[in-house]
Amino acid sequence: MPKVTVDGVELEVPQGATVLQACELAGKEIPRFCYHERLSIAGNCRMCLVEVAPGPPKPQASCALPASEGQVIKTDSPMVKKAREGVMEFLLINHPLDCPICDQGGECDLQDQSVAYGRGTSRFHEHKRAVTEKYMGPLIKTTMTRCIQCTRCVRFSEEIAGVDEIGALYRGENMQITTYLEKAAKHELSANVIDLCPVGALTSGPYAFEARPWELKKTLSIDVSDAIGANIRLDSRGREVLRILPRVNDDVNEEWLSDKGRFQVDGLTKRRLDRPYVRRDGKLVPASWDEAFAAVASVNPGKSVAVIAGDMVDCETMFAARALAGALGSSLLEGRQTGLAYDCSNLAAVNFNSTLSGIETADAILIVGSHVRWEAPLLNARLRKAAKNGAKVFVVGPEWDATYPVSNLGNDLAVLNKLPKDADEAFKAAQRPALIIGGAGLGKGGLEPSLALAEKYNLVRDGWNGFNALHMAASRMGGLMLGYAQPGGIADLVAAKPKLVLSLGADEVDYTRFAGSTVVYIGHHGDKGAHAADVILPGAAFSEKPGTYVNTEGRVQLADKAVFAPGDAREDWTILRALADALGVSVGFDSFDQLRAAMAKAVPALGREGLADYGALPKGGKAKAEGVIEGYPVKDFYLTNPIARASETMQRCSAELLHGETFAEAAE
Amino acid sequence: MADRHLEPDTPELRARWGNFAFNAAWDAKAKAAIARYPAGRQRSAVMALLDFAQRQVGEETQTQGWLPIPVMEYVAKYLDMPIIRVVEVASFYTMYNLVPVGRFHVQVCGTTPCMLRGSDDILAACKKRGMHKGHTTDDGLWTLTEVECMGNCASAPMVQINDDNYEDLTPERLDAVLDALAAGKTPKAGTQEPGRHTVEPLGGPTTLTAMVDSNHDYRKEW
């Protein structure tokens, strides 16, 4: 632990810390452009210069200099001030003065730091350099003249995303950042370079010229596009959410966000259900709330009610629906829309027990039937980190490009009964072995054999639980905790032939199997569920209601409401509360706070933020693994939920990045 | 340098170079270059392989050679590395030609020592023969480039033509060299000054004279 002195204050810094980190520990702000905590050190912007003794009598780049015993660091000396002014002047030589038309304006590192550390004027009278725009796909808008060549985007795509697609061509003043042959960046995390870019060179394409950062209301929320539960910030103006940005949470999403979570935002204003509809003579016609409730009440279902939860609903909505069904005398609740029927008697068996940050430390990983890159891109970045640290990764299921080395064990689940020699040896030798079972594995009955495997290889040991289930729906763990699981899956609901089916934004269900039932769809988008519905009650999307979400590792997280739902649409719980009145039963809550309190009473874990405790892993069954995984549930990464399907950006991503369509650039 | 750019990726380019592969001779050299590095570090050989590829392209086109995009892709595949990393290297170093060049790539040094010794006259002489900076002549014989210091300041001015340096030039001496090359002869490389062998001082040494015949210890004279 070296002791250093920063501006006269002596402090001890961790072994291996850099001078920049030492200064930060001392509470000093060091301006920087190229340095980023989660990327490798480049040391090419020179903005972090400080004075260090002992050492050469000149300013030193603090980001690339290790802190060592006895160093005297000065961050406020005249030399440092002059050095910063000089670097800033050089950086601004070729940077255009187009802040008024730059989308980064107001949240630009270069802008802020030139105000704080620059000298105010330039002595440069020659022509500035200009660089042609580079095409980087439908999400990233480029203005490369603004680039200051910090290479954060290059390092991100190489180190975090794992696809070497961005590079720096040519040299010196002519250096240009580009993708190879200006092909679109094809990666699920590609848009994070927009956040990383300290200037306005890489900005958000769909959000171009929409708003200034100071106009936006910032609301803390949770991403519902997958089961990772990434922490996000909704930036809204008026009644519209204009963009979604990730928040820092090292336990969940670090500071990244998948392109879908970020750019499905324009889907929130398209294809919305903004008034109730009732089906008359086979056609859905607009109706008033009273007419819609009357239509539901006229079914007079008695006990014959079933509830299907969609992939993006919050726990409060599911609890309110459970209370309504319970008041009517039914407990037919199901959230696994596509027919999965794995055993949910012990939730520890269907939880991501290693935790998302813990899986980074695994040294042998077996993925059973999961296309992790599409089902949870942020988890794939974690697995990549594990693989870079030497973890051996094995996959059962069809091959997919993992961005790190994996050995494929074939599509046949029977391999779980007896692992091949190399996997067997890797798991026996591993200190922290882990197994991840995904949707395709769960669908083929892989859960029991996986549990048996966990027992055989001792995946649960002191301080380590290596058994993980990876879900794809943001509502899944919350739903399972609230009892949205029948032993036989959704088939049990079909078999019960309910008179009334409440669909909470369930868009992946095969509604033809409920032909005899009256389907009431409470949701926000005119998607498959609404098409099949007999009564549509317009609800709120995740951005329009406060809610509790549980991610795939059992982490209970709260989201806030950013805007109001459009038109006549209401928050889902109020609809269910009113529906209870229409059906003549009492659900026991009249306000959102009462609802939350009742939910916390029924399922205490949902009342506490943080990881829920599901207890010990059950014993593995005797069942032999069999069956072949032919494909994965996610067929199109960009179009997995109703919001994304309504989003033009996501549709274009799907067409261009996955189906190879080309789009002519609009003439400017 | 400012006008360095990649040759556009056209179907014609793909048709011409899409099937590029090292011939036996260059393949052996490539394997030898890779063998110089530890297993798994084959990427380190990228600069050597790009040079070999450029030379093979040169042999096939009777020029100094250049690097079409499909050839860079071949090198990337050969070394199992991302293509963008290969293009980064190729575009960084000016000795890799990114666009087609002529039979002889005349690189005139224009840095200070050469300029003081008359590189402007050398450039003018080139221009007189129909060469323009950054262009290839219509007969496909000459490509003219102005480059920065090539490290021959003691025998300035100089030009580098393909693999050889020609030093101590005057416009007349340059003409003689270029005429010889055009005629298919191989002019003497190195200094063109009669009586000079390498970069030794003209007219005998002016310093360290006592060292000419035998070793002499100057230290006691300091």
Q: In short, what is this structure?
A:
By secondary structure, chain A is of the alpha/beta class. Chain A contains 20 helices and 29 strands.
SSE inventory with pairings:
The complex is a heterodimer of chains A (668) and B (222).
Chain A (H helix, E strand, L loop, with lengths): L2 E4 L2 E4 L6 H7 L23 E5 L6 E2 L10 E3 L3 H16 L15 H9 L22 E3 L9 H10 L4 E4 L6 E4 L12 H5 L5 E3 L12 E6 L8 E7 L2 E7 L12 H5 L13 E4 L2 E4 L2 H9 L7 E5 L5 H14 L3 E3 L29 E5 L3 H4 L1 H12 L3 E5 L10 E2 L12 H9 L3 E5 L1 H5 L3 H10 L3 E2 L2 E2 L1 E3 L6 H6 L8 H6 L4 E5 L13 E6 L4 H5 L2 E4 L8 E4 L4 E5 L12 H12 L8 H11 L7 E2 L30 H5 L1 H11 L10
Parallel strand pairs in A: 1-5, 15-16, 15-24, 17-18, 17-20, 18-19, 20-23, 24-25, 25-26
Antiparallel strand pairs in A: 1-2, 3-4, 3-5, 6-9, 7-8, 10-11, 11-12, 13-14, 13-26, 21-22, 27-28, 28-29
Chain B lengths: L10 H7 L6 H12 L10 H16 L7 H10 L4 H10 L11 E6 L2 H5 L2 H10 L13 E6 L11 E3 L2 E4 L3 H12 L7 E2 L31
Parallel strand pairs in B: 1-2, 4-5
Antiparallel strand pairs in B: 1-3, 3-4
Written description of the protein model:
The complex is a heterodimer of chains A (668) and B (222). Chain A is built from 20 helices and 29 strands. Chain A has 668 residues and is of the alpha/beta class. In chain A, strand 7 (166-169) and strand 8 (176-179) form a beta hairpin. In chain A, helix 8 (315-328) runs parallel beside helix 17. The N and C termini of chain A lie far apart (57 Å). The longest helix of chain B is centred in the N-terminal third of the chain and has 16 residues, at 46-61. The relative contact order of chain B is 0.09. Chain B is globular. A five-stranded mixed beta sheet of chain B has the order 2-1-3-4-5, with helices on one face. Chain B is of the alpha/beta class and 222 residues long. The A-B interface holds A 164-174, 179-181 and B 1-2, 4, 6, 9, 69, 82-85, 87-88, 91-92.
